[in-house]
Amino acid sequence: MKSYKNILAILAAGSLMIASCKDNEFLREEPKDKLTIAGAFTSKAQFDGLSATFYKNLQLLYSSKDQTHEAFVLGLGTDVMFDPRDNSVKFNNWGLVNAQEEFATDFFNLMYDNIKVANTLIGAASNPKVVWASEAEKAATIAEGRFFRGFAYRNLANAYGGVPIVPEAVTTPKVDFVRATRQECWAFAKADLEYARLNLPLTTTVIGRVTRAAADHFLAEVNISLKDYDGAIAAATRVIDGTDGSYALVKARFGSRNTSAIYDINKDYYYDLFAMGNQNRQTGNTEGLLVAQFEVTPTGGVIPGGVTGFTRPLIERMMWSQPWALIKSGYTNVAHDSTGRGVAFVRPTNYTIYDIWKNAGTDMRTNETNIKRKFYFGPNIKTVNPAFNPGQLIPKSFLTTREDTMLYVYPNWAKFGTDRHIGGLPDNGYVRDFYVARLPETYLLRAEAYLGKSRTDLAMADLNVVRDRAKATLLTNPANVTIDYILDERARELFGEEFRMLTLTRLGLLYDRTKRFGNPASGASVSLNNNLMPIPQAAIDLNVGAKMPNNPGY
């Protein structure tokens, strides 16, 4: 496992021991010593053990359950993706999204778990008994906690609006939480991210650990939400101009698939961004700002997602179609290394497959290397249909049923899978790290901030930086820069990476965009109240000391 995963064991090793008592003191009610939060953490190693929880929770955003669970935050049922198996399921049917709904509840609880851990860390770091190597080390440790607390409140405010703000560790029973306003939650997140960006390190030797650039990236977005466009531009610019470290858009081949092998030679640098082993700075990647770690050693290892029976993230399984199971096209219902083992739990919408690529020209993000649109007959096609030959392109006319194009044959984004699995095993041989934040998004956030200031010329310039890297046609008319266009560009660059649900709820556009561009079932069922997710009913019911009203419509 990656090095920071090893710190999970540190906390247990540093646990405090309770002194033994003499026999004649056994019944004394006043203890000689007691275990407290303040006394439990006295060294940097122990704080590292506690902060490991942040990274485990980050991993759980991408791989904690099977089927469509992780697709919720990536945009399930919105403008970009849907469940192709059943139009009656939640997020295809937005009427089923309610306060008992599992996906939104799990996300809510995961964010508050981060807040709980962060508050414990921040409070304990103030204990004068802690041995710090320097004040800078102490500040950086607190900054890590404040980053993840700010990240959690950014996520909560985007998704649910105003939620209870818990500024310190809760050490006694409390059942009277009160919802703050959405603006107050964003402001709280901003303060945390401001502290983090001033005190986190520029670089770290621990792969995947948060650094200053990630704090400024999310600070830029929170500032946009607060309509502090100048603050957003300043934060994004610190990432872009090198103040927060040396970052740049990748424009040349690099990493594990940059070889002369026949299956690699015709690929491109956008493909390299998503090849296994290529997400971190140590492998030549200059645009990953925060990367959730999943890679395993050559001998293998179960990923820290907790899904029984799997030793890999489920992104390929979830996002790719399953041509290997289309018997009538000459396949044997057995996955191959070159096809992967997608099972079509999530399908891109027509907006994502077709609309955003109209007049794409030479945009490499939609070429056959990066989006597989061509599928070929399998080795047994002569047996089931002698009119075709193995390896021949499957024509659209051959795909005659709904299942043919909803499950078996639809475009596969290379960023979600591979044609060269570890050990040649399509079931468990795809294990790559996931971008939580990537530099192109920083440019798109700055473009959004410029749009907020009515500087469409500068917004266009930032959009063109992203488009130029992709060899796409550049924009020439600032009048074409709208929030819709920025969202289209986010879909082109960040589909399946950005938390699309949070982007659309942040902007109050989930209803509008789903209505216009979503799967027909989602578009027909979505309501204005879905611009916010429901507060979980369990959180409301347990809060018996104060009323916690849900969002309107739930």
From TrEMBL:
UniProt record similarity statement: Belongs to the SusD family.
Keywords: Cell outer membrane, Membrane, Signal
UniProt xrefs under Pfam families: SusD-like_3, SusD_RagB
Gene3D superfamilies according to UniProt: 1.25.40.390
Primary location group: membrane
InterPro entries in UniProt: SusD-like_N (IPR033985), SusD_RagB_dom (IPR012944), TPR-like_helical_dom_sf (IPR011990)
Residue stretches making up the RagB/SusD domain: 431-554
Organism: Pedobacter hiemivivus
Lineage: Bacteria, Pseudomonadati, Bacteroidota, Sphingobacteriia, Sphingobacteriales
Domain SusD-like N-terminal: 46-222
Cellular compartment(s): Cell outer membrane
One Gene Ontology cellular component: cell outer membrane
The protein, known as: RagB/SusD family nutrient uptake outer membrane protein
